[in-house]
Write a structure and sequence with these properties.
Layout (H helix, E strand, L loop, with lengths): L3 E2 L1 H30 L8 H26 L1 E2 L15 E6 L4 E7 L10 E3 L3 H6 L7 E6 L2 E11 L9
Parallel strand pairs: 1-2, 4-5
Antiparallel strand pairs: 3-4, 3-7, 6-7
Helix pairs in contact: 1-2
Length: 162
Amino acid sequence: MSAYITPEGEKALKDELHFLWKVERPQVTQQVSDAAALGDRSENAEYIYGKKRLREIDRRVRYLRKRLDVLNVVSELPSDTSKVYFGAWVELFREDNSSVTYRLVGPDEIDPDKNYISIDSVLGKALLGKNLDDEILVDTPSGTHQYEIVAVNYDTPESKAC
């Protein structure tokens, strides 16, 4: 996994860490304490579920803290913004005469709903360092696909002109 992240991605991870540690964990801890006060813990579903949820929260908190320590926040634009690098919005023309726009992000930020793809993905690796109008071939389980890069932009999605 690459250790790159956008400033927005870092903020999202920090927000999640804060929510889990400062909001959700204290609530679940209180619920477990209340459930434990009811008596027999072996058949107390609230207690059992609460303890399980606390383990899940603690596991995620440990992961987020370790991950945030090793991530490199990429906040500056590359020197050549005509090429595809980390953080770029790339519009691709597909072989079926349709187009799609993706943003290259780190593995912690993948979001299909926003069209964020990892720089570690097959398509992400194929795009890195390419120029406008370059054609790329991507081997996938469903076969080889051809794309043409028709736009490269480093603006936010609201202002991108792809």
